[in-house]
## 1
Amino acid sequence: MFGWEFPPKIYGGLAVASYGITKGLSLQGDVETTFCMPKPTGQEEKFLKIINMSQVPVVWRDVWYDYIKDRFVGHTAEDYYRFRDHLYADFNYLQGLDDMGCIGFAGGYPGNLHEEINNFSIIAGVLARSEQFDLIHAHDWLTYPAGVHAKMVSGKPLCIHVHATDFDRSRGKVNPTVYSIEKNGMDHADCIMCVSELTRQTVIHQYHQDPRKCVAMHNAVYPLDEEIRNIVPNKKKGEKVVTYLGRITMQKGPEYFLEAAKRVLERSRNIRFCFAGSGDMMNAMIELAASYGIADRCHFPGFQRGKQVYECYKNSDVFVMPSVSEPFGIAPLEAMQCGCPSIISKQSGCGEILRNVIKVDYWDIDAMADAIYSICQYDALHDYLAEEGMKEVDQITWEKVGLRIRECYNQLTSRGWFDNGDYLNAVKNI
Amino acid sequence: MVNKMMKTICLYFEIHQPIHLKRYRFFDIGTDHYYYDDYENERVINELFEKSYKPALQTMLDMIEENGKAFKVAFSISGVSLELIEQYAPEMLELLGRLAATGCVEFLAEPYSHGLSSLAGPENFVAETKRQAKKIKQLFGQSPKVFRNSSLIYDDEIGAIVADMGFKGVMVEGAKHILGWKSPHYIYSCAQDSRLSLILRDYKLSDDIGLRFNDASWSEYPLMADKWLSWVAALPEGENVVGIMMELAALGYYQPLGSHILDFLRALPMLAKDMGIQFATPSEVLAKNKPVSPLEVTYPVSWNDEERDTSSLLGNGMQREAFNKLYDENIVGRILACRDRRIQQDWDRLQATDNFRFMTTKNNGMGNNRGIYDNEYDAFTNYMNILGDFLKRVKDMFPDTVENDELNSLYTQIANMGEELNIKDNEISRLRARLKKLGSPEEEAPKEEEPAKKAEPKPKAKPAAKKPEVKKPEVKKAPAKSQRKTAEEKVKAEPKKVPAKKAEPKAKPAPKKAPAKKK
C-alpha cells in the first residue's frame, strides 16, 4: 500500500482514512499490509509493516551493518540490504542522496511536491522488485505514479483509492499537471475505489473511466477513545456555538458559512460562530466578518489537532460543513459521534450514507441560516439529531469498509480483472 | 329498506387536502404573516378535482340514479379543504350539493382543521367539531349525526367527548390490536359512554380498493367487482356490517383512472343486489344494528401505517415538540377567546395533521410524501418558523399578565352586555310603538321622544346606559368582582371591543328616557 500520511502525524483527512482502511483490513487476520510512506515518525501503531521511503536505497552504497542498524525508522536494516540487492538503474544524478544512497523526504506537502512524487515513484520501483505481494493499493494522487510503476514492474493488479480529485480542490479549474497524474493513475488501475458516489461520478465523467471498474467505497469512523468520550463540554448557558472545522479554503466554502452567520446574527445575538482551522482564505474571512460587523461573534481559533478537535465538537451546538465539493468529509461523522448535530452541503459525499443530518445546497445560504437557527432555537430538533445521529454513526465502522475492500481484493487477485457485477452482489450482503 | 340480516356495506370517503405552507425562513418571523403557498394549493386542488373528485363524484351521482337509490355513501370533508374547494374548485360544491339532494348521501362531522385537537383537550376539539358541523349544515343542509376524527384517531376518552357532543356514532379503525379476537363486522359501543356506537373500518377490504387496486404485483390483481363482493359475501353469518373507508383521492388519484377503478365502483351496486348485499349510510347502519359489546381502546388508534397508531404523527421528539407548542393550554385559551378572524383561520390551517405527517421519521416502506419539503428536518424547521410567528401574534394580542380565565370572563361580560342590549333595544322599540299609539292624542309625548330618537342612531351609547343592570349576570360568570376594574382597563386596550369607559358619561341620559317612556 502506498500512502502519504499516517497517524499520528495528521495533515488532513487522508491520514485518518489510511489508518481506518488498514486497521479494518488487519482485523480480518489474513491480510498482511505493508504501508509505504515518505516519512514515518516511528510512533505508528504496529499492526502493519511500515516502510520508510526515505530509507530505501536507490543507489548502491557500501555501508556497514553496525554503522546503520540503529538509524531506521519503520523498516529494519535487513530490509535495507534486501532493497539494495534490487537496484534497477543508476540514480547517482539525483540531488539529495544521503550516505545510505537514499532520497530524503521532507514529509507533508512541501513546495517541491512534484519532485517528491517523482522520487517516491523511483523508490517504488525498488520495492516492487524486492517485495512479495499480491496487490498494490495506492492512496490519493501523490502515490499514483508509484502504484503505476510498481504495477509495471510486478504485473500485479493495481487498486487506487480516490480520496479527492483535483476537480474538488479547485472548483473545476484543474491543474493540468495534477490532472495528468490522476488520469494516468486511473487509466492504469484495475480498480478505482472512490470515497463516495459523487467522486465516482467525477471519476467516470471527468476522467473518462470505465464505470465497471469504479466502486464507491465510503469512509467510516472509529469509535471514540475513553479519554475523548470523557471530555466534559464547557458550554455557557444561554449561548450557542456553531462550528466550522476544516481548512479555510475555497473548496470548503467558508464564505457561505459566514454569510449564513450574518443572517442568523441579524435575528439572534446569542450565537457564536467558530471557524476552527487555518488556510489561504482565513485572512479574507476575518476581514469579511469585520466588514459585516459580526467580528465579535466570529472566532478564529486556528488549526486544531488531536484532542482539541473533539473538544471543539463537544463544545458546539451545531457543526456546519458547507463544502462546495467534498469527496467524502469525515468531519460531520466525528461531530455526530460527539453528539453534535451536523449541517452538511448536498455536495458532500458523506451525505450519501448519512440520514440524520440536515443537508442544504452550499450556495443556499438562506436554508443554511434557517437550519442553524432552528437547531439553536428548537431543542427538540437538536436533541433528536444528536441522539439519532450518534446511533447512526456508530453503525458506520471501518470493519465493514474493510470487508468491502477485501471483497474487491478477492475479485482482483483471483481474476486479475475486476468484474463489477459480481462484486456488487457480493457487497450488498455486507 | 335496510334489511337487518343482509350484509351491509357502509361506504365512506374522506375528502381532505391540507393547505400547503410556503417556504418560511426564520428571518420572516415577525415580518411576514402570510404562510401559504397559493400556487401549490391551487395546483393540488385542481389536479385532484380534475383527476379524482370530479369523475368520482359524478360516477356516484350516476350510480344513485341508475340504482334507484340503492347505493349509499358517506363523506366527511374537513373545514380547511372546504375553504380550499370554495376558493379554487367551487364546481365541486355543486356536485356535492346534488349528491346531498339525492338523500343517499350522508355527511359526517370531523374537526374543522383535520388536526390533532382530540388528543390535546376537549375545549378546542368540541369547538372545532361544532364549527365543522355548522358549515356542513350551511352548505348541504344536513346536520351530521356521526363523527369521524382526523385520520380516524380514536380512544375511549375521545369517544366520551364525542358522545357528550350528541353524536350517535363514530368511525374507528378496525385495528387488530384493539379488536383482538373480535370481528370488525359488528357494531360496538364506546367503553366509557354506551350512547356512542362504533363503526369499524375493515382495513383489509378497504385497502384492497384504496391501496392495492392497481398493484400489478398483488396476487389478486386485477381486482374485479364480483371477486371483491364475493369476499364480503363469504363473511360468516352475523357479521353484517362492513365499513369500507378511504380517501376519495384513492379513486382516480392514488389509483389512476386508467386502472378502471370507477368502473369497478360502478359495478358494485348491481352485483351486490344479486348477491344480497346492500349499501347503507352510517346513520342507517346504526339505526338497524345495536352494539354487541363495548370496545375498550386505551391508546389512540388511527388508520395510519401498519401500526395503526399515532406514531406517524407524534412518533418523534420533533413532532411532539411541535404538538406541545401548538396546543399549549395558554395559547389555545387565547385563540378560542379572541375574535380575530385571521388568527383563527391560521390556527385551523396550522393544525392539519399533514403538517405533522411531513415530519415523520418512520420508514413505512411506501415512501413518504413530504409536500414541498426535502426531509423531516426541513418540514420541522419550516413549520416551527411559521408556528413561531403565529404564536408571537397570539401572544401580542393580549398582555402576558392576563390569565385565560380572566380573558374569558371579559369576553363573556362583553357577550352578555350585547345580549342585554338586544333585549333593551327590542324593549325600546316595543315601548316606542306603544307610545305612538297612546301618545297621538297627547301632545307632550313627541317632545320627550326627541332626545330618545337622537340617542338611537348611536348604538354604542346604549350599552353603557344599561351597564348598571348588566352587572347581575356578569357576576355569575366572572370569577371575582375585584377583577372587573382591571378587566375594564384591559378592554380599553382591545380595539374591537366595546369601549367601556366611553360609555359611562353617557349613562346619565338613560334613566331619563326610561321614566319618560313609561308614561
## 2
Amino acid sequence: MIRIENLSLRLGGFALQAVDLSVAAGEFFTLLGPTGAGKTLVLESICGLVPIVEGSIRLNGRDVTRLPPEKRDIGIVYQDTALFPHLSVYGNITYGLRYHRAANGRGPETVDRLVRQLGLQELLDRSVGNLSGGEKQRVALARALAVDPAVLLLDEPLASLDPNFREEIRELLKGLHRQTGLTVLMVTHDFSDAHYLAQRAGVIQKGRIEQTGSVQAVFHRPATPFVAEFVGMKNIFPAVLEDGGARVQDLWMRTGGQAAGGRYAAIRPEDIQLLDHPGELAGGNVFRATVARLTNQGPYWEVYAQTGGVMFRTIMAAGVFFRRSLKRGDTVFIGFNPSDVHLL
Amino acid sequence: MTSIALRCHKPDLFVGLMFFCTAVIIAFIVLPIFEMVTQPGWDSLIEAFADRDVLGSIWLSVYTSAGAALISFVFGTPFAYLMARKHFRGKRVVESIIDLPIMIPHPIVGIAILSMAGRNHWLGQVLQAMSIRIMGSVTGIIVVLTFVGLPFYINTVKAGFEAVPPRLEKVSRSLGASAAGTFVRVTFPLAWRSMLVGMIMCTARAISEFGAVVIVAYHPMIAPVMIYERFTAYGLKYSQPVAVWLILVCLVLFLLLRVCLVQKKPES
C-alpha cells in the first residue's frame, strides 16, 4: 500500500505541489501525464531519492518520509533497465539478496521462482551487455522482485521496447501482478498499457494531480479539460448549461444525467458518428455539418466536420472511409448520444 | 568554370599544407627525443646506471611521484565523486581552484609552499613542533608533487564518475545497499579504470616537475634537478645519460596509460 499525502518538493526546474495519491495493497495503479509533468519525481520521492519539502509517504502503513532509500523496501524498474554492466545476469538478479536475507530467509527460492517465471534460465551466466531489450527488462524485473519489495515502482518500463517485446513484457507484468498480488505503481504515457494493466489511474500535470479514479473513469469521465484533452477527448468546447442540456455557441445538445461541472462539454471522437440520414440516431444529438478536413491516420481517418462555428472531430475506419468516398466540402450529418456528452 | 577550377586547385594546396604541418610537428617532437636517446653511447648509459647518485635520484623521483599519486587517490577520490554527483552553489569556483596548480608558474608553486611552511607562519610552526620539515626534505618534494599532480588525478576521476549513470546507484540503493555499499559494489567497479588512469597521469606530471621542486628541495636530488645540475656544472654530454634513464621511466608510464585507455573502449 502506498499513501502519499500533501507531498511538495522542488528539484531543478521540476516541482510537485501538494500531491495526494494512494494505491491500495495489491492494486496496479498507473500514473499518467505528459513529459515533464513530474511523474518520475513522484516515483523518486517514494524511493527517497529526492529531498522532500513537505508532506508524508507511507508504505504498508510505515512512515518512510525520512528514511534513506535502502530502508524503504521498494523495487524499481526503469525504462532504460539500469542493469549493472559489470555483473552477469545472475549477479544482477541476486544483487540485493544480501541485504534482505536476514529479513525473509527465502531469497534463493524467490530467485529460483522468478528465474522460472521470467524465463531467464538460459541467460544466468550471460553478461548483460548483449541481451535484447526484452531480456534486459525481464532481468531488471527479476532483480527488483528478488528482494520481495513491499511495492514495485515501474518507470515507463515498456517505452523503449520493440513492439513484440512490449507485448511480451506487458503480458509478463500482468501475469506477475495476478500471481503475486503485488502493489504496483507504474508511470507511463501510453494509454494502451494503462488500459491493459492498471485498475486505477491518476493524471498528473505540472506537478499536480488532476484526477484519480478507476481507469474507466479517468478515460470516460475526465474531471478537468486538461484530463479530457490528455485522454484523447478531442472535442472539448466551452459550454453553458441551458434548458436541461448544454449550449455550445449556437448549438444546443442534450446531455446525459451527470451535470457535475458545466463549463465544458467534451465528446470522444469515436463517439461521434457520421449518419446517412438525420433520423438514424433516435433521441440523439444530430447536426448538419460540412466536411472541413480529412487526415489519414493509417488504420483510420480523422474527419473534421464543421457546423456553425463548432468544429467536431470524429474518426472513421479506413475501409468505411473508402466505401463512403468522403471528400472535403461534403455535407454530412453527425450524431452522438446524450450520454456521450461529458460535462466538465 | 572558374569556380570548378578553383575548387580543383585549392584543396591541393590545403591538403599539402596539412601534411606539411603534420610532418613538421611529428619531427619537432620525435627528433629531439630521438637525438637525445641515441647520442650517448651504451658505455655512458651503463656508466650512468652504475652511478649510485643517478640511480638514487631516479628512484627518489619515482617513489615521490608515486607517493603524490597515492595521496591524490586517497584524498582526491571522494572529492572527485562529490564533484561528479553534487550540484551546489560555488561549484564552478571549486572547479577553478582545482585547476589553479596547472596555471601557476612552477617556481611560484615552490615559493608559495615555502612561504606557508616557513618559521614565520603558524602552520610552519605546527609542522616544526611535529618535527616535520618541508624545506630540503622528501616530505617537501612529495608535498610539491602532490600540489602539481592533484588536478590531473581529480579531473580524470571526476570524468570517470560522471560516466557512471546515477540511475545505477539509485537502483542499488533501492535494493538495500547503503551509499557506501553502493560505491563499493557499483561505482568503484565501473570507475576504477579512470582512477588508474588518473594515478598514471598524476605520476607522469609529478615525475617531470622541476621548477617547483628545485625551490623547495635542491637536495635530496630528484632526477630532473640532477639533470639540471650536471648540465650546468659539466655540460650536455654529462646530463644526457641521466635524461635517457628518466625518459625510459616516463615511457613505461606512458605505455601503461595507453594500455589502460585502449582496454577501456570495448568494455563500455
